[in-house]
Amino acid sequence: MSAQGQAARPQHFVRGVACTLLGGTLWGFSGACAQFLLAGGYGLSPLFITSVRMLGAGLLFLAYMLAAKRGMLKAMLSDRPTILRIAVFGVVGLFANQITYTVVIGYTNAGTATVLQCTGIAFVMVFTCFFARKLPKAKELAGLVLAVAATVLIATHGDLSTLAIPLPGLIWGIANGLACAFYIMYPK
Questions:
Q1: Which phi and psi (to 5°) does residue 183 adopt?
Q2: What burial letters (b/e) apply to 175-184, b meaning 16+ CB within 10 Å?
Q3: Pick from 106, 119, 132: nearest CA to 48
Q4: At a CB cut-off of 8 Å and minimum separation 6, what does 143 contact?
Q5: Distance of CA 146 to CAs 32, 122, 181, Å?
Q6: Ranges assigned E (strand) in the chain
Q7: Closest Cα partner for 180 from 85, 61, 100?
Q8: What's the pTM?
Q9: Over the stretch 58-95, which tens digit does the pLDDT of each residue have?
């Protein structure tokens, strides 16, 4: 590796950490804002909030692509299979992930919705093991058991005879986990 390449690695690492922290912070802020808007008596629906969020993000992304990656955008838009894959990802992956997350916030709160969304990682593992026809490794199985246990604790607060969150919130949370798994796996 060249001296210039080695010098750039720490800079890329710092930029990656900063982007990760900023992304997580903005995601948390977005969830708190959605909770505020849904619970604040403004009469806004999860569909409206999700549509505005996605339209705003889509316009910003399109502006970036037009300014910095015009050739790539033109190539993507001139290839029918790519357009179809983008449409499927946009509707079944991105939109489903966003709308189910916002619906869960409406039934529960932003923190619970975020934790339930993280069940997507467990679904990814289950689907990966199923399609690869392999059993999970011991560490993976332990992680799955802990994820299920955490979801049960969130849903029941430790009292298995009753739900501590509304049933629709739990069902939508599981749907959000599935949408998140599709969002993660489909691009591959």
A1: -55, -40
A2: bbbbbbbbbb
A3: 106
A4: 122, 125
A5: 26, 10, 18
A6: none
A7: 100
A8: 0.85
A9: 999 999 999 999 999 999 999 999 999 999 999 999 99
